[in-house]
Amino acid sequence: MTNRKRLVFSFVFIGIFVMSILFPFLARGAEDITTVFIEAKNAIDQARMAGAEKNAPDDLAQARSWLAQAEKKLGDYKSILSRTKYMLKSDGEAVREINYLASMAKVKAQTAEAKAKKIPITEELKDARKDLADYQKSLAVLSKKIAESERLKAEQTKIDAERKALDQDKRKFAELDVQKRKDMEESTKKAAAIENLKRKELAQAQITAERLELRKKIAVMEKEKAVQTDAAKIPHATVKPKDKEIVITLLTANILTSKNVISSDGKDVLDKMGAFLKKHAAGAKVVIRGYTDSTGKAAMKKAKPLSEKIAHQVKQYLVESQGIPTAQLSIEGLGAAQPVASNATATGRSMNRRVEIIVPLTQ
Amino acid sequence: MTSKKSLFLMILFVILVSLCISGPLRGQDISPAMEQELFDAKAALTAAQNAQGERYSAGSVKKAHELLRNAESARSLKDSTRFDQSSRLARAYAELARAFAELKIEEEKLAGTINEIKKAKAETKRITKGQ
Prior knowledge:
By secondary structure, chain A is an alpha+beta fold. Chain A has helices at residues 3-26, 33-49, 52-55, 57-78, 80-88, 91-233, 252-255, 264-280, 297-322, 346-352, and strands at 237-242, 245-251, 286-291, 329-335, 354-360.
């Protein structure tokens, strides 16, 4: 080999050698791989601060591992040999690999941070839920108590209303009772007044009745008096008032002859008697009783038929001459019974021979 | 001596160049373990969606979706490294979305419970005052 050839060969060799050293530096891409490294480191720091060492140690360890790998790659990438290798291989690929490793570190760190943050939040959520359950429980108890209180209040209100209504009813009842008593008193008074009135009316009626009775009695008395007066006007008649009747006594001697027929004086007397009966005894039952005296046994036997005959004579005359209805007159022959004077004397016997005409006063 | 030295340096250079070229050029097949990783990532994403990840961590879910698409694309290019990285990162993002969603749900539950407690306290106070 000539010197010239050797010199050329040496230059070429040295040039290639120098190029192999300088090219990686010259050919380094514009990509800034330090940025992603910083981000990864920051992410790891944040994860650590978030408690990833305790709560997400695996993820944090992975992140650190990825970062370590990335740093190693970067170190390699910076070495001369590697630079030469990357120069020949692909600079972009090397950077991409480093970026990949750093990105993995960053993402894993972020994941560790999220997981680390999640754990205390989950615990806090658990506590909060427990607290909420407690609050809700106490609220339910409180609501229940309030509902019970409301119910009691409503019941109390109802009871009060009922009591009020009862009081009102009582007052009303008392008022009604008072009114009733008043009414009763008034009724009693009215009844008493009515009773008094009735009594008065009764008394008035009694008085009226008594007056009427009195008037009647007076009328009767007046009538009796009139009857007696009129009877007294009959000639030879003796008038004797008895209970509710008057007895007009006519001596036989004044109306009959010795043969026991009506004498002319007797007719006059009987005419007057007839007029009297028409006036004062129209329609009344009049009894004609004949009496004799008691002279001797034989006479005594004939006394009753005689007395009856005398009574019959008087009746017949009154019927025939005065038109007195025969049914109105009845006769009785009592003989010598009920003498009014002694039969021992002629005057007495004369007084015992008599006719009694009993005229009822009341009709 | 000089030629021997030059020859040594030449051989060394060739070895170095071979080493640098041989790695990247040697393509790796997508292994069943890698496929399993993609499957797990999809499952993690479904779990995150079920945990309302789209509502509470939409960015992470979106990132997981993108990474899954990248993985599918890497499979068609038979880029096992990208496939594996995308799958793993997708799974990590999905898990992050799920964890964040669960955290937010717990926080909301806690806030709701605290609010309920406040209401119960207020109700208790009102009732007690009313009494």
